[in-house]
Give the backbone structure.
Amino acid sequence: MSGEPLLAIDGLRVEFGPTDAPLAAVKGVGLEVGAGEIVGLIGESGSGKSLTCRSVMRLIHPPGRIAAGSISFEGRDVLAMSAKELRDFRAHEAGMIYQDPFSSLNPVFRVGEQIVETLRSNLGMGKDEARKHAVELLDGVGIPDPERRALSYPHELSGGMRQRVMIALATASRPRLLLADEPTTALDVTTQAQILALLQRLRAERGMAVLIVSHDFGVIAQVCDRVAVMYGGHVVETAPIGTIYEQAEHPYTRALMESVPELESAGKRVRRSGIPGSPPELTENLEGCVFAPRCAYARPSCKDVSMALEPVAPDHQTACPVRPFARTTAGAAS
Ligand SMILES: Nc1ncnc2c1ncn2[C@@H]1O[C@H](COP(=O)(O)OP(=O)(O)OP(=O)(O)O)[C@@H](O)[C@H]1O
Ligand SMILES: [Mg+2]
């Protein structure tokens, strides 16, 4: 990535519990998203993906708190923004699709009205202009017969259509960054592919960057330029998607890729293999590498690992110093 990234997160720490005995759920995450880049944030349930995204929007609800770190957007300090700056930031510059679509779509209002409200409050549009634009937005995200669909209530739409409405809402003000938290979970594979294609189209048309959260490598592989793998509140590896496929270095990344759901011809998913054991609890205070208890390559020195990302190539970083999969340098064949 050249120049300053659009989004730069550094040393992000999110805590719950009392301040004198905090429970950290995000433990020093570093992550960058370049302008127009699609980055995948992947990891098992509870690894801190949603909290990382919500931190960017400053939407960690008390008693949860951002305890340390920095978040910079186009060089501006998001954590230092005033209430007004934050409102503008959320209204114009960063949009988010939340993990549970029902928590952000109000069930008692027609979807068109909800978009109209967003356009009026975020972009200051008048009623007629907002109504016209809402239909255009629904059309723009591939909703057929948008005039009629605008009159539907959320429960009258299919999961895929609801997700398109969410995307229309989150991108109405043409933000430079979209945070998409599991935008395709619970959708069938065909609908999932359509939603991913829509995100790619928005990136191509507008140069919009996307941070897409998933626990499915199949999803990430379809759309992402780069991947950050999360485990136990840490980013453990980051690299371009091609590098991850060819040369993932962290044993957790390898294990996650091996557990990728296979697609059957019937469109059903089967899990090929899981990762033995389970992710750490927040209350567990692990010394050294947080993945070591489940890692087939763990050795005694892993209890001294700091979890800091170290470069193994200019665009590839890993938190595993053991590097069991590192390619040995080609011998000087004579
Ligand atoms: N309000 C809260 N109070 C206490 N703990 C919380 C709270 N919100 C999240 N956590 C904990 O923080 C950890 C990370 O949560 P987060 O929602 O970021 O995980 P995730 O990676 O998005 O998981 P999933 O794939 O299930 O969505 C989890 O262990 C979760 O239980
Ligand atoms: Mg989540």
